[in-house]
């Protein structure tokens, strides 16, 4: 698995990362969602550099232009609900993409142990396409692996790009050991070292779903 951490370089992405972490700026839910959306747009642009293109002729009012356009078919897959603003940002750039959604959540038992439950799944066929799978945070990696394996029931993509703006080092290592090495690129903006005994990322940013859409019932 190839790992690309965009915060290793300087770009405006780092500004948005700082803002989604900031506990005071987080109070503005709309800004939190918009920052995730803008980060999705930046990830989409960077991923676009790794895709395949073809040359087509475009008729202008004055003649014919040779243009390079995407040759790959793309499926955008997102883990709800926290990943929805990120999904919107990716879709702003890959506006012709097909879309897949997975609803997965933690169900806690005793001693802070939890199982990952899936309540909803929908996806087009992905065989021979490029899959972009997004979630705002990667903690243990369990829900993302579950979503990935569910999506593989719809076919085998030519390549998978996984986008998680904030990651734990544990989760990244788990994905590296669990998922195929050659056919996956992992994109992030931060790799944090600590997970609490409840598997919360530190420093992380808190509960991304609550910050984007309000407290759960």
Protein model, in words:
This protein has 217 residues and is an alpha/beta fold. It contains six helices and twelve strands. Strands 1, 4, 5, 6, 7, 8, 9 and 10 form an eight-stranded mixed β-sheet that branches.
Kindly report how far apart the N and C termini lie: 37 Å
Query: What proportion strand?
Result: 35-45%
Shape: globular
User: What's the assembly state of these chains?
Assistant: single chain
Unreliable sequence segments: none
Compact overview of the structure:
The chain is an alpha/beta fold and 217 residues long. Helices cover 30% and strands 35% of the residues. It has helices spanning 13-21, 29-48, 84-93, 142-151, 169-178, 208-213, and strands at 2-5, 53-60, 63-70, 74-80, 98-108, 114-122, 130-134, 137-138, 159-168, 184-192, 194-195, 201-202.
Protein traits:
217 residues; eight-stranded mixed beta sheet; two-stranded antiparallel ribbon; 30% helix; 35% strand; globular
Helix/strand layout:
Elements: E1 2-5, H1 13-21, H2 29-48, E2 53-60, E3 63-70, E4 74-80, H3 84-93, E5 98-108, E6 114-122, E7 130-134, E8 137-138, H4 142-151, E9 159-168, H5 169-178, E10 184-192, E11 194-195, E12 201-202, H6 208-213
Helix pairs in contact: 1-2, 2-3
